[in-house]
Amino acid sequence: MHPYANLEPDRLRFWTLCLLGAWVILTPVLIWAAPARSDYTIPDLAVAGSVGAAQEILGHWLPTDRQAFAFILGFDFLYDLVHNNAVAFGVVWASANRPPGWISAGSVLAWLLWFATIANIAENIVFFHMLQVGPSFPWPEVGLGTTYFRNAALLGGVGFALAVGPGRSLLSRWRSNAA
């Protein structure tokens, strides 16, 4: 079981809502920091997947773009910690008071979200390295793999939390009103 699954329902709800609120507050900072004039963004670099593609992307960035992206990468250490934990709390909260299979699935997803946070740390270090030194094998490939893993964990967690939490509650209400 994930440690969040052992929290009392009131504490679980409190921390879920706090971290969701922090995620909402931090998102505009991330959007504000992204240079609007660059043809390529960090997500483009994240999915480059090869030295040549990464060199092409980095070649389009001005020194000011590189500084902005370095800030974004540093900020992402905090941002990813907040949003992955917000989703992990949401997953556990959504699966609480459900049958044991749902609780187990929520716990597994919460662990995957914690592992995704660790993958994000590795990913950001890889991107810092590429900003400073330039891309070389295997760093664009490592960036691609960690990006896919952490995005899959995040999207899976959000989908699970919405489907099992509010989605399931709405379906139950709809069925009871239809009967």
List the helices and strands and how they pair.
Layout: H1 9-33, H2 42-46, H3 51-59, H4 63-95, H5 100-133, H6 139-178
Helix pairs in contact: 1-4, 4-5, 4-6, 5-6
Account of the 3D structure:
This protein has 179 residues and is mostly helical. It has one domain. The protein is 82% helix and 0% strand. The protein has helices spanning 9-33, 42-46, 51-59, 63-95, 100-133, 139-178. The longest helix is centred in the C-terminal third of the chain and has 40 residues, at 139-178. The radius of gyration is 19 Å and the shape is elongated. The two termini are 36 Å apart. The model has no long low-confidence stretch (mean pLDDT 91).
- Main structural class: mainly alpha
Give the number of domains: 1
Low-confidence stretches: none
Cα separation of the termini? 36 Å
Overall pLDDT score: 91
Report the sheet-strand fraction: under 5%
Q: Give the H and E element order.
A: HHHHHH
Helix content: over 70%
Quick one: how many beta strands?
A: 0
Largest sheet: none
Count of DSSP H/I helices: 6
Key features?
single chain, 179 residues, mainly alpha, elongated
Short summary:
With 179 residues, the protein is mainly α. The protein is built from 6 helices and no strands. The model has no long low-confidence stretch (mean pLDDT 91).
